[in-house]
């Protein structure tokens, strides 16, 4: 099949005509195989020179189309040639058989091929013409009805058409699955792009808003539905804030929420005197500083912590299962760690503002308190940690 279904460089897997190219090769493989086998059967078993000639003509046309397509890669010509050949030979066969021996069953293959290869408009026209011929043949039989006799030809027609349909539908299922798979991957890429800061690769402000809304919704439910202290599970469940957001009102998640009592801290981080870096070294160096600092901060985060770029030279951390004292200790270590680093040949310092969640907080209010704490740290001389 890899040899038969030639891979054209101008039709990569993401090209709109990629699957049409595959179907042309797939259909021609089926038609050439069918015409060759049917020619032998009609010649040796049924001793029918008329159908042997018809199958031989189909075999020759299929080979010519196949050879021309492999040589030129012209999809439109090959699509039309394949569709016309298949529909014409099917109609000729049905007419020559006068619609008997289930010969009309072959017409069901025409829409499967024509719609995919030449589109809905022309596929509809070709299919309607084919079915009109079939309807006319059936009408003629109603004018001069004869007893129906099921012969061996009918059995062969049923078997051959069913096999062809299975092969074609199997191909279409492959294209459908591939299409959905690519769409799912593309949606993940779009979601990642929507949640990721392009410069630093960290999550962005939109992701932060979603995470805070989720966490504060969990805390709000806990305030309304507080389990008895005797039955409370002391272990806090792990919440993957980097994955897909979950609806906290779902019954399955309510069981998880009822046990989630861990404290939440929000930390606002700002690079001290970052404007001087842009003014003295240029914005490109400033961007490199932001990227390198983002990498350093991320390397110090725990698995369930979230680090986002808030905007400009500011970053925000969301810390789970962290008391206020632990948050102060962690941020102080982080401040000292950054101060010891050499970033783009410069010694940088950061200021940090800490806010601990309380029951009256919303996403905006806790961020506002962290921002005020950051302003306090800057007013105290920078390179320090302040608490709201």
Q: Residue ranges: pLDDT <50 for 5 or more in a row? A: 225-260
Supply the number of helical segments.
Answer: 11
Q: In sequence order, what are the helices and strands, one letter per element?
A: HHHHHHHEHHEEHEEEHE
The oligomeric state is single chain
Query: What is the average per-residue confidence, as pLDDT, rounded to a whole number?
Result: 85
SS-based structural class? alpha+beta
The largest sheet is: 5 strands, mixed
- Beta fraction of the residues? 5-15%
Overall 3D form: elongated
Main β-sheet, spatial strand arrangement: 2-3-1-6-7
Amino-to-carboxy terminus distance: 68 Å
Helix content: 55-70%
Strand elements, count: 7
* CA radius of gyration: 35 Å
Describe the structure.
With 388 residues, this protein is α+β, with helices and mostly antiparallel strands. Helix content is 61%, strand content 9%. The strands form 2 sheets. A 5-stranded mixed beta sheet has the order 2-3-1-6-7, sandwiched between helices. A two-stranded antiparallel ribbon has the order 4-5. α2 runs antiparallel to α3. The longest helix is centred in the middle third of the chain and has 44 residues, at 152-195. It starts with 17 loop residues before the first helix and ends with a strand. Mean pLDDT is 85; it is low at 225-260.
Please outline what is shown here.
The chain has 388 residues and is α+β, with helices and mostly antiparallel strands. The protein is built from eleven helices and seven strands.
